[in-house]
Design goal:
Strand content of chain A: 25-35%
Shape of chain A: globular
Mean pLDDT of chain A: 97
Mean pLDDT of chain B: 93
Oligomer: heterodimer
Structural class of chain B: alpha/beta
Strand content of chain B: 5-15%
Largest interface: A-B, 46 and 42 residues
Number of helices of chain A: 2
Helix content of chain B: 25-40%
Order of helices and strands of chain A: HEEHEEEE
Strand order of the largest sheet of chain A: 2-1-3-4
Radius of gyration of chain B: 25 Å
Largest sheet of chain B: 8 strands, parallel, barrel
Structural class of chain A: alpha+beta
Number of helices of chain B: 19
Low-confidence stretches of chain A: none
Strand order of the largest sheet of chain B: 5-6-7-8-9-11-14-15
Number of strands of chain B: 15
Chain lengths: ~140, ~500
Amino acid sequence: MMTNHGNRLTQGQFSFLPELTDKQITAQIEYALSKNWALGVEYTDDPHPRNTYWEMYGNPMFDLKDASAILTEVNACRKTFPRHYIRVTAFDATQGVESVQMSYIVNRPKTEPGFGLTRQEIGGRQIQYTVHSYATDKPEGERY
Amino acid sequence: MTEDKQITDGKKRYSAGVLRYKQMGYWDPHYVPKETDLIAMFRMTPQEGVDSEECAAAVAGESSTATWTVVWTDRLTACDLYRAKAYRVDPVPNTGPGTKTEQQYFAYIAYDIDLFEGGSIANLTASIIGNVFGFKAVKALRLEDMRIPVAYLKTFQGPATGVVVERERLDKFGRPLLGATTKPKLGLSGRNYGRVVYEGLKGGLDFMKDDENINSQPFMHWRDRFLYCMEAVNKASAATGEVKGHYLNVTAGTMEEMYARAEFAKSLGSVIIMIDLVIGYTAIQSMALWARKNDMILHLHRAGNSTYSRQKNHGMNFRVICKWMRMAGVDHIHAGTVVGKLEGDPMMIRGFYDTLLDTHTPMQLEKGLFFEQDWASLNKVMPVASGGIHAGQMHQLLTYLGDDVVLQFGGGTIGHPQGIQAGATANRVALEAMVLARNEGRDIWNEGPQILQDAAKWCSPLKAAIDTWGDISFNYESTDTADFAVTPTASI
């Protein structure tokens, strides 16, 4: 079990808050749409902090401007992957950004075993550190 | 007045003796700056009896080609080109007779790009803020702003990492980053120091930080600090599943030693290192090159800047430091909090932040931005807000400073009554609650205290933070405010 605040993975913008309701998720989607950002839904069962590429639940929805329709996509992903981590990501194509502007978790497994820290003692007093996700000891799709 | 006119007859102009700077050609009210010119804007307080245009011409002269007397060797050069041209002088509003301040002037001076070596802040500053600040014709002189031409910007690397890539590397989007400076800043052993780092990061901060004067003192040598801090960083990363960092200050007495410390930080897997402004412009540029080559974020602490940036009549404005540091290539710079314990007028600070973050900054006199500035695709620098801020001010911080900022709560984390982790958690919860509310369209400026109270109902660390610091504020008058008249009294 994780021993940090909330006993949970704290990636994303709102992981220190109570689980977002559909209404709250919709409000955040509307905020992104008001900035002309494209929304995407991504899922994974490998929550390593440097696992950049979560699986895309379809391409970013560049042409979908309706928050409730986007929420429908979010919920479809949740239904398909109820025990995965799922995040909503907003992409900004503006010159000087061309990157992610929002990213928040909207689904997570019931239990989160967290990560171990592997220490490899090397020269002198130096240690080589590896953060290891306990869940990834099992194959993809069978982790939570 | 004939003695005010530029002397164009070669023989008269270059006959031995002393001329007024205007006669030598350093004042040209009809000059139209070229796209490729650097423009500097100075606040001048002329000595008694020196008229404003002559004073501006003198500043132009002494910061470019002039010396105190005529030299014939000018005629061997394209001296008309190399001579800086003062082309505009405006009286500063609310100075002079009838006010409590001596008469001051804003002087605009244009410099040809060939006066400067590409890619060298040292060379640029040796001209612009070199001898001229001690020059007798001016009682006081302050460099207020500069317009750097795109052609010159393109000779600089710029920020090693930049805001966009920093966020991608850290996997942190859509909110300010959170940090804290390890306290007490002096005296902790490496082991004790790492404890503070671990607690703060596990509690919810993204970064912990060395202070500017933490280098390698008898109580904690630098290698011990680096080793224990990286244990703390990695342990906190495993505890939370987030990328975490600690700004390891590599400031040292020589470049060789700084490189050695930076290499060690890299070998330990640190995502970020830190330097102090006092190491100097060239050293900063060298560290920026190193950081780009080694995938490292480069944090700059502005130690020392207030010795020359704070007083309004002499020195230089911090916005110029911001411009130079973006060119020099740092990724973070301390740029004010508005609400904290250190100097800062809200509009002035917004001007600093815009300078660090915009791709293109329009002229905005109310923010102290005297020039339009195209940033030529140089990366953005992340501003850092540090000094006397706490969770109870979150709505003000987010309103004033926006998302692209590192909010650093040192005392506001470590001084928490329930401990360091609780202090960090209070800050993170307050931040996330406020970003959520703002995005929902709530008026956080007015509803902020209520939003924090609501979050405090389910988050006891936040409640304790508000109970402890809720009423603390630092309301002192700023020494550095914008001087501009809504209708400029321009002398074109």
